[in-house]
Amino acid sequence: xxxxxxxxxxxxxxxxxxxxxxxxxxxxxxxxxxxxxxxxxxxxxxxxxxxxxxxxxxxxxxxxxxxxxxxxxxxxxxxxxxxxxxxxxxxxxxxxxxxxxxxxxxxxxxxxxxxxxxxxxxxxxxxxxxxxxxxxxxxxxxxxxxxxxxxxxxxxxxxxxxxxxxxxxxxxxxxxxxxxxxxxxxxxxxxxxxxxxxxxxxxxxxxxxxxxxxxxxxxxxxxxxxxxxxxxxxxxxxxxxxxxxxxxxxxxxxxxxxxxxxxxxxxxxxxxxxxxxxxxxxxxxxxxxxxxxxxxxxxxxxxxxxxxxxxxxxxxxxxxxxxxxxxxx
Length: 329
Fold this sequence. Notes:
The chain is α/β, with parallel strands linked by helices. It has one domain (2-328): Rossmann fold. Helices cover 46% and strands 16% of the residues. It contains 12 helices and 12 strands. It is globular and about 70 Å long.
């Protein structure tokens, strides 16, 4: 099983659209068993993957175990819970989902406080920090576990990134997305050095290394690659190219991506997973239908020339899933 966090410090980069459609493409075209964990308190992935009535029923059900509830026994000093969060099926996307929970934003305080304990080498701190990793370690029935994350460098996202095998970065072509990459590099370097010192302190105080699923925890996050999204394109010689205004930012972003690759020891020429130009005409229909872009049809309001747009849009996601699958399987 491979776990991947979809992360960028900047919002509005098409992250949720990417993770849901890419996951569905892997499930349908590659026959992979996929689970999405919605770890964004805004719950956009849950709202995309499930019809409103179903999502409302789940969130109001007292028997539903949310991702947030996984932290409650830890907060009380009782250790990791025995029961997993409730797993829901998204029929149109043909994948499973752990629904998001707005209360996760409140867990930032617990995670931030216990990160200080982690840095001191205290077992309680490690347990809170690695709760998501503990959860992922139990999801061995899946081929891929993909995690949707909010656009912050806060404690919740740090715990997710310490839990997953890889992170994938959706990028948009703007100056703020460019600056976000620089923030990510600085934060990751700081987290890595802090964690390495924390592990030493824990071993010195306790006489053993903290483990999840019988494996010592360590900094092992890998950069899987990026997907460039949301630029206006022109066609030249039959090839889609960004217009000149975006080309300048793309050039600068490549420099920052190269710096990010250096931090992770990755070849910069091997991190471009694909490109998704603006899909404004079909994404809203996809969201309204709670269906992947490439599965839209007449019942979802597709008419006339929109079928061509649906086919083109779907191919972008299929191409990215092919690239990702080839690298990891």
